[in-house]
Each structure stands twice: as C-alpha cells, then as structure tokens.
Amino acid sequence: MKHFATVERSLLVGHAISMVFGLAGLLIVLPHAELIVQLSEFGQYIFQWSMAGGGVVYMVLGTAAVAVYACRQVGWRLWLSFMLPAVLLSLGSELLGTSTGFPFGHYRYLAGLGYKIAGLVPFTIPLSWFYLGFSAYILARVGLERFGWPRWLQLSLAIALGSVLLTSWDFVLDPAMSQTLMPFWIWEQPGAFFGMPYQNFVGWLGTGIVFMTVATLLWPRRALNLSREQLRFPLAIYLSNLTFATVMSLAAGFWVPVALGIAVGVVPAIALYAIACPQAALLEDHLQEAVRTPLPTDTVPVSVASAK
Questions:
Q1: So what's the pLDDT on residue 22?
Q2: Distance between CA 157 and CA 140 in Å, rounded?
Q3: If exposure means fewest CB atoms within 10 Å of the residue's CB, which of 35, 168, 262, 295 is most exposed?
C-alpha cells in the first residue's frame, strides 16, 4: 500500500507541475513572441510540444492520480462504478452538446486537448469530468456523514452538493479557456455570462447529477468512514484545478467568475473537509463500535472453557 501511496503522490505532483507549466506557456511565453524567438531549438520544440499536448498530460495525470486514490481508499469496484458512469455519461452529454447544442449550448472544441472522439470531443474531456467529479462527490459525501440525518437525505445532498462543486469549476474555467490567445473551445452561441450562455451551467449541473446519482445507486448506502486526513488528496485535486482556472480568469480580467467559484466551490469544499471526522476520532468510533458489538451466542470465554 505504501508503494501505491507513493505513486499517488507522484501523479498528483506531476498533475500540479503540468498545470504550472501550462500557465507559464499560455500567460507568459505565448503573449510574448520575442521570448519564443530567444529560445534554443530544443526549447522551441518543448514549447511547441507543451502547447500541443500539455492539456492532455495534465488531465491524464489527474485521472491516473484520482484512480489510484480511489482504488486505495474505496476499492477498485467503487472506483470503476463511479468512473464508468462519469466518463460514459459525460461523453454522451458532450457528444450531444457539440452535435445539437443540448444541454450546454452550441460550442465546438479546437486543438490542444488530444484525439477527438467522433471528431467532436477530445478524449480527455470525459476524463476531467471523472477526476473532478469524483473529488467533488467524495468531499460532499464524507463531509455530510458527520450529520445525523437519514441516509437517503445525506446521499441526495451529496449528489446535489457534489454537482454544485463540479459546476463551480466551470464558472471559473470556461470563460478564460474559450477566450485566451490560444482557446481550447469556442462558443458559437455567445451568451450573457462572459461570452457563455447560462444554459451551459444547467447542462453541467444536470450532467453531474445524473452520473453521481448512478454512482450512488451502485455504491453501498453505508457510510464510507473516511477521515479528514484521507480527504486531503481530493481537496488538493479540487483546489489545484480551481487555482489553475482562477489564474487563467484573472489574467483575462474576469473577476466575477472567480468570485463565484470561490463562494460556491472553494469555501464549501474547505468547509466539507473541515467537517469530516479526524483520523483519531474515527479510530475511537471504530473501537467503541467494536466494544458495543456483542459476542456470538455460541462463543465460550477461554477461562470458562478451561475450567470445564
């Protein structure tokens, strides 16, 4: 297990570093052509490669990191029963959206995010729905376990809150990524929210609710019993991706999306993490539960058996 923990941390670090390099290329090097000219031949090659494949690298690393984390913390069955609905259903929504305009509005993807499925949706996009969606859902579900509400209410709120956290990421990311010097997608149906239609967020929220509901039905209804310490990883994934989107939006002068992302995404995510049970308290609860659990009726104490 220590080996997998090391792999998990390495993938997370690689994910974060690739985002930093992406920001540097998009915000520092790309707007200043003189910097590109001054690079060596090898440096120009690296820059061109990073612009062409940097987005793919950071999303693949994020997906791999979350997959390892999910296997370690909840097991491979629960990992797959979340990842498969998330990837397949989000891909369906994206293919429908790029073909018909429903449920997000009319848009299309440009180059820079990898091979396009059916010539429409980069294969990395459904992966990003998974790794951000899983991080948001696990934060919401574990955080809400601290309340003594009925399980059906906790699970319903986890779906709703997880979907809101996921959509909050798009509040910040979408305006900047579609309006940079090197946009990754464009809106053919300009809207009132910094060039995007409000329909886009309804589509994001609805897609998140659908695949999180499917995953919830496939997962056991019992509490996951993950500690606050075990939530550090999904919180790091969530906050690092919000930070990437925030820097992009601020560089483009978009303050309102950033404020919305902080209020509806960052603050609730940190609050859910803080609410979660600390490791020591969780261990104490397990010990108390073990003490309260009666022995089987056919169990005979060792001292009595010896006397006989």
A1: 87
A2: 8
A3: 295
Least confident of 43-47, 59-63, 89-93, 187-191: 43-47
**Long-range contacts of 220-226, Cβ-Cβ distance < 8 Å, separation of 24 or more:** 221/151, 221/155, 223/145, 224/74, 224/138, 224/141, 224/142, 224/145, 225/145, 225/282, 225/286, 226/73, 226/74, 226/138, 226/142, 226/276
Mean pLDDT over 203-223 rounds to: 97
- The Cα 78–Cα 99 span in angstroms is 32
Nearest to 39 by CA among 56, 25, 27, 52: 25
Report domain extents, the chain.
75-289
Rg (Cα) of the chain, in Å, rounded?
Answer: 22
Q: Check if the beta carbon of residue 18 is closer than 8 Å to that of residue 54.
A: yes
Q: Quick one: how many helices (H) and strands (E) in the chain?
A: 12, 4
- List, as one string, the DSSP characters of 226-237: --TGGGHHHHHH
Q: Are 73 and 5 in contact (CB under 8 A)?
A: no
In the chain, helix, strand, coil percent, each to 5?
A: 75, 5, 25
For residue 117, give the H/E element and its range: strand 116-117
224-233 per-residue burial string, b: 16 or more CB within 10 A, e: under 16: eebbbebbeb
Residues 234-267: tens digit of each pLDDT = 999 999 999 999 999 999 999 999 999 999 999 9
pLDDT above 80 (res 290):
no
Structure tokens at 66: 């979350």
- Say which residue, 88 or 51, is predicted with more confidence: 88
For residue 128, the one-letter residue type is: S
Closest by Cα among 58, 39, 57 to 47: 39
Query: Are the CB atoms for 90 and 129 separated by under 8 Å?
Result: yes
